[in-house]
Amino acid sequence: MQEDEEGFLYPNVDDTLCVECGLCEKVCQYINPVNKNTEPQNAFGGHISDAEVSNESTSGGAFSAIADVWCDDNYVIFGAETDGLKIRHSFINNKKDLYKFRRSKYSQSVIGNAYKNCKQFLSEGKKVLFSGTPCQIAGLKAFLKGKEFDKLLTVEVICEGVPSPLFVRKLDDKISKEKNGRINSLDYRYKDSNKWDYQVMNISYSSLHNPASGTIKCDRWFNPFWSIWLNHLMSRPSCYKCLYTTSNRVADISLGDLWGVHIYCPDLYNGDRGASLIVTNTDKGKKIAETILKENFIGRELDFSQALKYQGPMRKSIAENPKREDFMQDLKTMDYDSLCKKWAKRPSLKLLISKYVFGTNRQKVWWWNFKKKFKNK
Ligand SMILES: Cc1cc2nc3c(=O)[nH]c(=O)nc-3n(C[C@H](O)[C@H](O)[C@H](O)COP(=O)(O)OP(=O)(O)OC[C@H]3O[C@@H](n4cnc5c(N)ncnc54)[C@H](O)[C@@H]3O)c2cc1C
Fold first, then answer.
1. What's the pLDDT score for residue 346?
2. Calpha distance 234→167 (Å, rounded)
3. Predicted pLDDT at 363
4. CA 151, CA 153: separation in Å to the nearest integer?
5. Which of 20, 292, 321, 348 could make an SS bond with 65 (beta carbons 3.0 to 4.6 A apart)?
């Protein structure tokens, strides 16, 4: 796999070694799309009962709740872990190490030997939980040649795309210059209980020369990363024509944020700890969701069509920003501050007032509960 000038990885065939068997094209999901599930789908919402795990997770900790129930004996769990700025797929065989996979890393993970290892573990009769983006799950299915395994549970994140890793590297360069340190961990959605909006970016850095390390926190609405990425200026080109941004899915289970929680299911609002949407796409997935609801997850079944309404990436792919090309040129040449000054939009005063003065979800849910109590009296 080789990085292109935008920082995305692509396969590169070494012609001197290629025997022209055509297998790489046969398993390429963009040439031969993988079948999506056609079983009835169900939606569930809520959060894991363990408050600490919920706090450590991106949404409501559904991933950990599922892993806990599925992995009883002789199991292996695959997921994306972080190593400084690098994100890669790896596996664990002890649930104590689940923390490595918790938290969304908003960058494409290097899949490495994960598919090969997964196949090997399945052939040894182990129970496998494989998590990743929808295209990674499709890649696994293609690698397994569509063969079904009772002992394999696939869990995908509902994904709208991955941004170029060059942007975060620019930030790392800035920290290197200004703080004489390097980023050693980056939590994109740190749950800071002192903030009204939990999507705070928390960056820790440390330096070999300077014993002092530190953290930088950046509020969601003032964070250039979110502004630039969510304006669709730096996603991977294939994400703009993603095959998986449809309601039918490839994995047994799809996990996302419970967007719209304050509108259609305020009873499931979990404050700053976040809430999860679980979409089950197979009978196997549904059974797991029903089990966690009995064991370690507080929530309930939702109306599937309502849930779909608030999940853009389950309906359509993101549209490429017409200025993407110009942004990418600047990303290659400008430093972090100049880049952000030119491309990141500051939040409007109207949005800030509506978020922080009148309309945070917390306030909306409080108002909803107040009205409900009043009606009951
Ligand atoms: C790139 C990306 C884009 C996303 N976009 C959306 C979106 O538009 N709307 C939405 O509702 N939800 C989106 N999500 C999903 C959401 O952020 C949470 O990951 C999901 O709700 C699970 O949260 P949790 O609390 O259950 O699990 P957590 O404990 O936070 O578990 C994280 C799970 O995500 C996997 N994961 C983390 N980073 C990566 C990565 N880089 N590549 C592959 N797998 C990864 C882990 O293996 C683990 O299974 C996205 C996630 C990613 C990684």
1. 87
2. 9
3. 74
4. 7
5. 292
